[in-house]
Structure prediction request, 285 residues.
Amino acid sequence: MDYPLAIYTTQISKNVLGFIDWHWHNELQFCLVTKGIVSFHVNNTEVIVRENQGIFINAAQLHQASNYLNNDSSYICLDVHPDFISSFPGSLINDKYVQPYVTNTDIEYCLLDNNIDWQKNILDYLLMIYQEYDKNNEFRIWVYLIQIWDLLIDNYFLTYPSTHKKDHNIRIKQMIEYITKHYYENIQLDDLAKEIGVSKSTCCREFKSHMHCTIFEYIMNYRLIEATKLLLSSDYNITEIAYMCGFSTSSYFIKHFKKKTGVSPHVYRKEKQNNTKEILDTMNI
Prediction:
């Protein structure tokens, strides 16, 4: 938390799933598409973001990203905790200029287009932040972020009412949080439903309706992502990785990994060993 900011590049096709699966986090996210066209889903809305356009996704919003119409797309991603902008919780800046907008559930996202002056300014600042990041110029990056936030307040946030609607995705977020904490265990639908406080049928129905996949498809995808991280960043063997990521047997892991990637985990590890960082970036490490 001494510098709660991460910047990375993502080439969607290099993700082991072929897309960035549904997730949410407390950080604000800014993306600048550098190649192709990206389909971002934010809650129940699809947002098409073309090359040289961008998107701001507010904190705690469910979102997903995939290539649009088979474009091989890439984008720069910036994740920043709101405290980085507000200096510290409880400050006047935080209470007056940050939290009212971060916690406003009406403010889900903002498409950033080069043809609109204030949005173009934000895109320019994002590119400058990306260029300054490797120079370790923390103060200048912070100044650029303040400029971005100021532009969003004046031109976008103030168009929304201050009264907040109910967060209808709270159960989905709870399910995702449970899965991310227990993916390496034998997750039972009974346990998940009890954790959320709903019936098993309601649990399945709501998840499928919002996420467009079943709970167990999501668990499988999450386990494959975590297994891929270990394949590329550790020396654990295939059997160890399988058990560490919740697969009942190594053969079951190999079967599903090969189904998703076309190659075995061993071959994948060998083929991708020179592109480890680039691939891990696509999984938001």
